[in-house]
Design brief:
This protein has 236 residues and is an alpha/beta fold. It has 9 helices and 7 strands, in the order αβαβαβαβααβαβαβα. The longest helix is centred in the middle third of the chain and has 17 residues.
């Protein structure tokens, strides 16, 4: 109970101070249990909604979430350690909505857990509810503080920029991704620049081979492959 109270206090205390423990390799056993474990935290893009389709398939809506897929399974195979899928489709980081908010769920997954590394990539649903970049940044910092108070390494990830039928929300995700970069620098955290990976892999987002199109929010199989490569680069 005292530990949980301490964590809840830290959530509201701004930027946590740097520590030499976080200058070591990201893929390290921070809790001394003899193994490295990673939690991938986020929304439907972490869960893997839209995975399994190929470029050129006409997808207006994703028919169902299915079993968890996406980048966590690929990343686990690539780096050789367990990567747990903590994605919840439809969840916002800041707002509550019908599903609840990521910042409310985050401490329940982190406090007392055995994971050593936490990857945070969430915000696409916040964009659809017009959450300001200031509110997003403040909330993401709270999550960082919780993870670091628990001795976890944190990897921040920028967001795939929406296109097609969701292109109107791209301005928000651009702002969120810039906040992610700033917080990674401010907190001396590893950064997976997924947004930049998509820009580099697509000459034009509206026809990008990384998306289910024209749905334009969720990646397809090549898109999740690209996210995995970006995550692996940040871990290494």
């Amino acid at each position: 109970m005292m530990q949980r109270a301490l964590v809840l206090l830290i959530i509201w205390t701004g930027v946590s101070s740097g520590s030499s423990a976080f200058a070591d390799s990201v893929l390290s056993d921070t809790n001394g249990d003899g193994q490295v474990e990673i939690l991938a935290f986020g929304d439907s893009i972490t869960y893997g909604v839209g995975d399994g389709t190929q470029p050129g398939e006409y997808v207006v809506t994703i028919p169902g979430r299915g079993a968890p897929r996406g980048y966590p399974l690929r990343l686990s195979s690539l780096v050789g350690v367990p990567v747990y899928n903590g994605g919840v489709p439809g969840e916002e980081l800041v707002g509550s909505g019908a599903i609840g908010s990521g910042i409310e769920r985050f401490p329940n997954l982190i406090v007392g857990s055995s994971v050593d590394v936490v990857i945070i990539m969430e915000g696409s649903n916040d964009a659809q509810h017009f959450v300001t970049s200031r509110a997003y940044s403040t909330t993401l910092q709270k999550a960082i503080n919780v993870a670091r108070a628990e001795g976890k390494h944190v990897v921040l990830a920028t967001l795939p920029p929406p296109t097609g039928n969701h292109a109107q929300f791209a301005g928000f995700t651009y702002a969120y991704s810039e906040s992610v970069r700033q917080l990674a620098t401010l907190n001396s955290l590893a950064l997976s620049d997924v947004e930049q990976t998509f820009f580099e892999g697509c000459t034009q987002l509206s026809t990008c081979a990384y998306y289910n199109l024209p749905e334009g929010l969720h990646p397809n199989t090549p898109g999740y492959d690209a996210i995995t490569d970006a995550m692996a680069a940040a871990l290494n």
